[in-house]
Amino acid sequence: MASNGENGRHQEVGHKSLLQSDALYQYILETSVYPREPEAMKELREITAKHPWNLMTTSADEGQFLNMLLKLINAKNTMEIGVFTGYSLLATAMALPDDGKILAMDINRDNYEIGLPVIEKAGLAHKIEFREGPALPVLDQMIEDGKYHGSYDFIFVDADKDNYLNYHKRLIDLVKVGGLIGYDNTLWNGSVVAPPDAPLRKYVRYYRDFVLELNKALAADPRIEICQLPVGDGITLCRRIS
Ligand SMILES: C[S@@+](CC[C@H](N)C(=O)[O-])C[C@H]1O[C@@H](n2cnc3c(N)ncnc32)[C@H](O)[C@@H]1O
């Protein structure tokens, strides 16, 4: 959840900091992230900060991380589940080559349309195919089609946590061997280590068990190598090896 930094800025960006102090997180943002944030991403971040659900957005440091990661792996064909206003989508679109592609899915098109003018202005909309609706049936259809097996370089999952394991069962087939799946929020506000009687918000408590189950399943899955990073709300990178 947003924490109240000395200057309240965490609240503004809706960040779920896992660092030991707000000051340290603010230091990262001000020293390394904001000075290098592309104008379009800054604009979208500021628009999103005014949204009543701004807490859902990917943080600027995680956006910077995703952008760098996608360039490092030379990603071209990607997928995103959970778009909201499009901050991580824009970070992805900026990292891909001009003929790169992102299949972007969300049950809510209205929020995507808030960010779309910024993406269009940046000349990146042609890389995006947005599909409104639940992602799971789309994945099932793709698997049934047979054309998409092992075709994705990178897949970012940032939507309904209670379906992450269902996504994983399908995505492991769609990502290529050597490709990456990134699961967001795998430290779930730090609640993964909260004692059973900790006073957690209802939705944090509800999704916590799914996140715990996912983390165990990923650690035991021999088809992937994993790396869990305390960036944003925790992101687990899974590299398909078989
Ligand atoms: C945490 S937000 C995504 C944040 C986004 N990555 C960003 O950078 O701002 C989660 C999104 O998942 C979407 N969502 C929830 N259930 C979904 C489902 N079954 N299929 C696709 N999207 C879903 C929500 O509408 C919401 O926009």
UniProtKB/TrEMBL annotation:
Main EC class the enzyme belongs to: transferase
Keywords, ordered alphabetically: Lignin biosynthesis, Metal-binding, Methyltransferase, S-adenosyl-L-methionine, Transferase
Gene3D superfamilies per UniProt: Vaccinia Virus protein VP39 (3.40.50.150)
Pfam families, A to Z: Methyltransf_3
Coiled coil segments of this chain: none
Entry's EC annotation: 2.1.1.104
Biological pathway: Aromatic compound metabolism; phenylpropanoid biosynthesis
SUPFAM superfamilies per UniProt: S-adenosyl-L-methionine-dependent methyltransferases (SSF53335)
Reaction equation(s) it catalyzes: (E)-caffeoyl-CoA + S-adenosyl-L-methionine = (E)-feruloyl-CoA + S-adenosyl-L-homocysteine + H(+)
Keyword Transferase: yes
GO terms, biological process: circadian rhythm; lignin biosynthetic process; methylation
Family (UniProt): Belongs to the class I-like SAM-binding methyltransferase superfamily. Cation-dependent O-methyltransferase family.
Protein name stated in the entry: caffeoyl-CoA O-methyltransferase
Upper classification of the organism: Eukaryota, Viridiplantae, Streptophyta, Embryophyta, Tracheophyta
